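Hi there, hope your week has been kind to you so far. Would you mind checking whether the C-alpha cells look sensible for this chain? I owe you a coffee for this, so here goes:
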Amino acid sequence: MSSHREAPEISKDPVADSTDLYAFVSPDKRDTVTLIANYIPLQNPAGGPNFYEFGDDVLYEIHIDNTGDGRADVSYQFRFTTHLRNHDTFLYNTGPITSLTSTAWNRFQTYTLTRVEHGRETVLGRDLLCPPCNIGPLSTPDYPALARAAVHGVGPGRKVFAGQRAEGFYVDLGSIFDLGDLRPFQQYQVFAKQHGLPNQDGVNATKQLNVHSLALQVPIRELTQGGWNGSDVNDSRATIGVWTSASRRAARVIEPGRGGQSESGPFVQISRLGNPLFNEVIVPMARKDEWNALPPAEDKRFASYVAKPELAGLLPVLYPGVFPNLATLDASGKPRADLLAILLTGIPKGIVPGFQNFTGTTEADMLRLNIAIPPTPTASVNILGLVAGDAAGFPNGRRVFDDVVTVEIRAVAGLTYHLVDNSYTPDTAAGQVTDGLDNHSPENPYLDTFPYLGVPYDGYHHPAS
C-alpha cells in the first residue's frame, strides 16, 4: 500500500513500480546515510520458472535535493543487464547456486551504478552482480551468504546492493480498502457495525512476500550542500530531500513473430515515490498517472489535496461520533497546515521542540531527512517515530521498521493539527487509531546492518505452515 500498485498505469508495469522508499542515518555507520528504494511489489516467493528480476529497459534512480527546490542535485542511477548461460534449458538454475558465479545459475543480472551531480556523471561500479532470487533449500542452500556476496564496495565509504529482499512494509490492505475498515475499530465503522463485526487485530497483507531492493550506503558529505556534515540540527544544510523514480524510453516497438521488442528515444519518467502513501491516498485517481510523470518541484499542483485530504472527510462519516473535532475542522475549510508541512515542505523550526526538517517554501513530495539527528539507540526506538518522540524516525526520513500507516492515519485524523493551531483539541481516537499492525514483527526479521531488510522468503517454504 505504501506505493504498491498505487496508480492505474503503473499497476500494469510492476518492474517499474516503486513500492517503498527509506532514508536514514546508518545506525552502525554514523557518517553515512542509507537509501533504499524497493520495486516489483507483492512477489510470491514461489515464482518459478521465471523468477523476478529488474528491468533491463528501465532506468532506476534515487534522487537527492539539497537546495530545497524539489529538483535533483545528486542522483544515483541503476541500469541492469540480464545474462543467459544456457539457451537450451527452461530452468533458472540447473543445480545448487553456491556462489554468484556458479555455472548452475542460468539467468543472472549485473548492473552499472552511476552518480550524477549537476549533469556530471561518474560511474561508481560496472558489472556488479545481483544475487539470485531465494528459490529453496536445494537451489539456494545458503542464501544469506549469496546476499552478503552481493554487497559491493564502490569507493570510500560506499556500499551498494541490488536484489531480492523480504518485504519490510506491513499493512492491512484487505481491510483498509474494504470501505476504509480498520479492524481494531470496526465496531464503530458504519458498515462493519451493520454486519456485527467485532474489533480484531490487523491482518498483514504483505506477510511472507518479497520485493526487489536498490540499496545504497553513502557518506553524508556526498549528499549535503557543500559537503556539510555538522551537528547543528537547525542548520538549513542539515536536511536533504529524497525520492526515487523509474523511467522508460519514449518509444517501444513490439517485433512481430519474434516475441521481442525494442525501445528508442529519451527516457520518460513513469513512476516516482517520496513520502509513503502520498500518491496512494492523497492524489485522486484521475490524476495519479500525471503525478507519477512529474518531478517533486511540480507538486504545488497537488497541494490542495494535502490541504484538504479526502480521508479526513471520510473518517467522521465512516466512524460516526468517533471524530467530532475532526469533522468540525474539516467542515471549517481550514487548510491542513500540519499535513502541508509534514508532506510538502518539511517541519519548520519551532513546531516540534529541538527538531526541524524544513527544506523551504517549495512544495514537493520528498522524504526529508535531517542528518544532524543521530540514530536512536535500539532500546529507545519507537516505530511511531517523531509523533512518539523518536526524532530519528518518520517523518524524519524513514527507517525500514517505522509504522508509517499508523503515523499517517493518525496525522490525517487530526493528531498533529494542534502543533500549528493550539486552539484545536485532537479527538481521543486520533491518538489511538491504527490498522492493528503497530506491534508488527516480521517473520524474517530486519537486519542490524546493510542492507537492513531481511532475507527474502523462499518458494519451497511458502506459504509457511
